[in-house]
Write a structure and sequence with these properties.
Layout (H helix, E strand, L loop, with lengths): L5 E7 L6 H14 L3 E6 L14 H12 L5 E3 L2 H5 L5 H11 L4 E7 H4 L8 H7 L1 E6 L6 H7 L8 E5 L7 H9 L10 H10 L6
Parallel strand pairs: 1-2, 1-4, 2-3, 4-5, 5-6
Helix pairs in contact: 2-9, 4-6
Length: 203
């Protein structure tokens, strides 16, 4: 068993999980030497409504299917089983207690970091974990520097450039609704699960 010194946390609704999520997680693992990455499907997000009428269990199963082939990827049910509003800082606090002595890296998009001032206890979040801001080539970072510069632990914010992949969960849902192919936009097992369960056809 690999001793974990650096743990990545990849949160999101994963509605559905797609290749962009997986590329981002693997790039973070590679660039920052992470020993393991925990994918954390959101239960009840405070700032985002979960579209498509997809059940938490379906989102969890799709995440398990998508990550199963990578031994460095794990999936947690923590937020799903809480059945209450899920704030990033609370999840990080939980993992910090569960994984004592492990350095934490929370992975999110650069656009989400721009909203960090609206998150619950952002200073506390940066005290407990590094924040990896994933960005595509050419994405303007002026506002990111401006906002993170207001925090005492701005050194905890790491900018990570990833390949530009024009896929999103909303795009996948829309293509399913329009009966268009999603092959290669999601792992094959996720594609099969969406088809078998009839997900997103009415969104």
């Amino acid at each position: 068993m690999v001793k974990i010194a650096k743990l990545g946390i990849m949160g999101g609704t994963f509605n559905p999980i797609h290749i962009g999520h997986l590329v981002c997680a693997e790039e973070a693992r590679s660039q920052y030497g992470l020993d393991e990455i925990i994918f954390m499907p959101t239960g009840l997000p405070p700032h985002k409504e979960i579209e498509g009428g997809t059940s938490p269990e379906a989102r969890y199963l799709m995440t398990v299917i998508a990550t199963a082939v990578n031994p460095r990827f794990q999936v947690s049910r923590y937020e799903l089983d809480k059945e209450q509003l899920c704030y990033t800082v609370d999840t990080v606090r939980y993992l910090r207690e569960e994984k004592a002595g492990v350095e934490l890296y929370f992975i999110t998009g650069a656009d989400a970091v721009l909203e960090i001032l609206g998150w619950k206890d952002p200073e506390e979040l940066l005290r407990m974990a590094n924040l990896i801001a994933a960005t595509r080539p050419g994405y303007p970072l002026d506002r990111l520097s401006e906002i993170t510069g207001r925090f005492s632990r701005q050194d905890r914010v790491k900018v990570m450039e990833i390949p530009a992949i024009g896929v999103s969960s909303s795009l996948v849902r829309e293509r399913v609704r329009r009966r268009m192919s999603i092959r290669y936009l999601v792992p094959v097992g996720v594609e099969q699960f969406i088809d078998k369960e009839g997900l997103y056809r009415q969104t």
